[in-house]
Amino acid sequence: MDEYISFEQIPFGSDNFADNPEPRCPCVLLLDTSGSMGGMPIMQLNEGVRTFRQELLADPIATKRVEVAVVTFGPVTIETDFHTVPNFHPRELETTGDTPMGEAIATGIELITKRKKEYKESGIAYYKPWIILITDGAPTDEWAAAAQMVQKGEANKSFAFFAIGVEDANMDILKQISVRAPLKLKGLMFREFFIWLSASMKMVSAKEPGNAINLLPPSGWSEL
Amino acid sequence: MTWKAIGQSVAGTSHIAAAKGCEDAVRYEVFSHPHGYDVLACCISDGAGSATHAAIASAFTVTKAMEYIQHFIAHGEELTEAHIYALAEDIYHGLAEEAAANELPISEYSCTIAACILTPDRSAFMQIGDGAIVRDDGNDGYNIVWWPQTGEYHNTTYFITDNSSLGDLHVMVTDTPVNEIALFTDGLQLLALNMEASSVHQPFFKDLFRYLRQADNSDKIAVLDHKLAEYLDSPRINERTDDDKTLFMATRLPA
């Protein structure tokens, strides 16, 4: 009997786990900072990006897994290359210039291709990357090639591309660029949009087998 | 008793949060072959998170596997590679029938499978999808049978339901007997395998098998089986994975 009790008390288990890096969930924000975004829109967008960070930080798994990169246009600038959320410190964005959307999309796709290569070289597992385009206008550069890159990337399951139109955005052109139906932001509800985006990213970064991207319904912030 | 075995499937924290329950399943048994030897069989399955009938599919898969194995052993047949293919086909058709009866596409029953059948002088393994089988056959520590089959992305893998020709099925039958074996689903992959080195994390298995070897009666094995469920649901595991997790372990008694 004594022996039985001592066996009950053995510390079964192991704390010696393999030291693997967390799988990563990359997300690129392509943000329109052209002149027309001046005033209230850019203020609300900045607030939205800050909210995005805070919401992700509140989730322990998303904090370790989600990586954010920011590209602004125009001119096209890589504001921040991929960083996990605790190391992602968004700068206050200002508006300048026109809307080189085609170049911004190509830059975003290039960032993802480069990041995937780095993951592979370091043996880091990763989830399907997301590209989020937010614009209030229409491209001022050549965008047909970028639209083709988006279509090819979606067909090859290289990434998921989402387009969000603000105010007077040219939704017809966004429809030609994005395979997924572009969504129109209600008013300047950037904050609500980024809360939705962070919640969707949390769902993706939590482990679920299967191919489908399970988006939350875009309720509250989009015009239907 | 020629084998000591424990095995548990435990729901992950993300499944509990989504009120989904555990979609992993495990079944194992030691069968007495009419020719006078013991056969250890185990099957584990991980139901796809995207499939509506994932929990039913994984439970069906492991139950069907055990029925098939019991059946051919009861008929006094010796284990061959043909048995493994027939077993996989049997499960595929069973899942297809379940889906048809409920007027659903078979993808709603998507699940992975990993199984072993071990006789004193022959070892058979099969696998479709992620998770892994790790064995000690006296050949320099614990070795993985197949690296987990994943797609480009961390959350994509292959399922027994993917195609009727079972193109993703891995089968191995060898004449090398196994001393110790572990089967686990992908919820434990990042803890039990070194991804960069593509190798088994030896200390994890050494720690766990040490206690199983010490258990020298069925009461103690039952204690360990209970402790295994507690361990799989402990904060130290849940801090590292939010997925369902299954671990089966067996050690052969010294002859």
UniProtKB/TrEMBL annotation, chain B:
SUPFAM superfamilies assigned: PP2C-like (SSF81606)
InterPro entries: PPM-type-like_dom_sf (IPR036457), PPM-type_phosphatase-like_dom (IPR001932)
Residue ranges occupied by any PPM-type phosphatase domain in the UniProt entry: 12-232
Annotated coiled-coil segments of the chain: none
Record Pfam families: PP2C_2
Official protein name in the record: PP2C family serine/threonine-protein phosphatase
Domain of life (superkingdom): Bacteria
Species assigned in the record: Nemorincola caseinilytica
